[in-house]
Amino acid sequence: MKIIAVIPARYEASRFPGKLMQILGNKTVITTTYQNVVETGLFDEVFVATDSEIIFNEIQTNGGKAVMTGQHETGSDRIAEAVQNIDCDIVINVQGDEPFLKLEPLKQLIEVFESDDNQEISLASLKIQLTEKEEIENPNNVKVITDNNGFALYFSRSMIPFHREISYDVHYYKHIGVYAFRKHALLQFSKLEMKPLEISEKIECIRYLEYGMKIKLIETNFIGVGIDTPEDLEKARKLL
Hints:
alpha/beta; two-stranded antiparallel ribbon; 9 helices; 11 strands; globular
């Protein structure tokens, strides 16, 4: 299989405009993310997909590969446009604002497809257990529930499952927005109309479920720093 990584990168983030061009160490956030993904050695090629000339020029100036796209509602739609003419089998979506993603969870996502002999899985992604009540109830944390084989049943910003039977211990999992797609499933996804559940929750993975596609979730203990706010950037700087 030919496996590539694509980093969707939008300049105008609603909560923190221009965050990908903020300095982290001695490089921008987007350059740090790009170079860290390249250094894993897992991918045949790594691209940044962006509608911003500022980000496009930043990556090319630093010796990277970038693809210009139109404007899109979701990162998956942006990636679909970027890869339609690229020869590949599996596409890994790495968020541009997750500069510290490690090799092991990316490797686990690739292994999902290497062992999927019947090619039934359209998408693989990551989840991590939540234990703090505040984190479980936070609508910025997308929760996911799966069946016994690790396939997603639903994603929500609400607390799922609802803990009605308090005598029974239930686990909560946060969805981490790192995706691995079969290319043909990704291209199909981009042509599908958004349905009410996805629009209501603003969670693009729900579109796959609404159209009957299979999403495999891999549990990880990786805790990165997603940069959504200026406060997150300060945390990332301290971590670096």
